[in-house]
Amino acid sequence: MHLAILMTNTDESAFAQAHPKDGEKFAALIHAVRPDWSCDVFAVKDGVFPDDLAAFDGVMVTGSPASVHDDEPWIGRLLDLIREIVATGVPLFGACFGHQAIAMALGGKVETNPGGWIFGLTRADVVDPAPWMTPLGPQLAQYGAHIEQVTEPPAGARILIGSAACPVGGFAIGGRVYTTQNHPEMSADFAAALIEEYAGKLPEEVVGQARASLSARADYEEFAETVARFFEQADAGPAA
């Protein structure tokens, strides 16, 4: 299977340069469970977009410190591309910024988190699992890092994952769209490094809770398997 990874992460700091870029991290997520799949990365945040969606079996949209509300030309172009992807039936997965961009492109609403920052390892209930989510238990542990979230999902969306702090933690539209508000691509080492990078920038209680959360593990491979199964089931049948 051949996937396009739309890389939206605008962080070009020294910290970012010292770690794998998001394109590499999302490819590694897929290769953890489907090592023979191929991935092409497009730095859409730099205006680099795929020329032909038909060349790909699926598309992934990464996270970013940017806001979907930012007045940047690449964001408007990405929202248009998301609508095109959905209209043509190409399977689409989005995480964090990607989740929010998909929601907003399709008529949903993204706003500031009522409870402030969600940071570190988070737990959400798998409230209405799609068929491809069978590798997961009743709860999902993932690394989170967001101050905005989807407050109204788009029409026709099925909320899959949620918590009191983030009710729309992930959604599906038929068998062609799958999202999570969190960061399935982050490793434990990267999450720990990110927390320390933000230690002087966020409230002390947020950082303290994030550090404490690292005593547990994220469902990295389990969630990666759901993403792979999502693309496989979409490839196996007509658009739902």
> What sequence of helices (H) and strands (E) makes up the elements?
EHHEEHEHEEEEEEEHHH
> Which strand order spans the largest sheet, edge to edge or round the barrel?
2-1-3-4-11-10-9-6-7
Assign an overall shape.
Answer: globular
First-residue to last-residue Cα separation: 20 Å
Proportion of helical residues = 25-40%
- How many individual domains? 1
Written overview of the protein:
This protein is of the alpha/beta class. It has one domain (2-236): Class I glutamine amidotransferase (GATase) domain (Rossmann fold, 3-Layer(aba) Sandwich), CATH 3.40.50.880. The chain is 32% helix and 24% strand. It is built from seven helices and eleven strands. It has helices at residues 14-17, 22-31, 73-88, 97-105, 188-197, 204-213, 220-236, and strands at residues 2-6, 38-42, 58-61, 92-95, 109-112, 118-126, 139-146, 148-152, 158-162, 170-173, 177-180. The strands form two sheets. A nine-stranded mixed sheet has the order 2-1-3-4-11-10-9-6-7, sandwiched between helices. It has a two-stranded antiparallel sheet with strand order 5-8. Helix 3 (73-88) crosses helix 4 (97-105). The longest helix is centred in the last third of the chain and has 17 residues, at 220-236. The chain is globular.
Quick synopsis:
By secondary structure, the protein is of the alpha/beta class. Helix content is 32%, strand content 24%. The strands form 2 sheets. Strands 2-1-3-4-11-10-9-6-7 form a 9-stranded mixed sheet, sandwiched between helices. Strands 5-8 form a two-stranded antiparallel sheet.
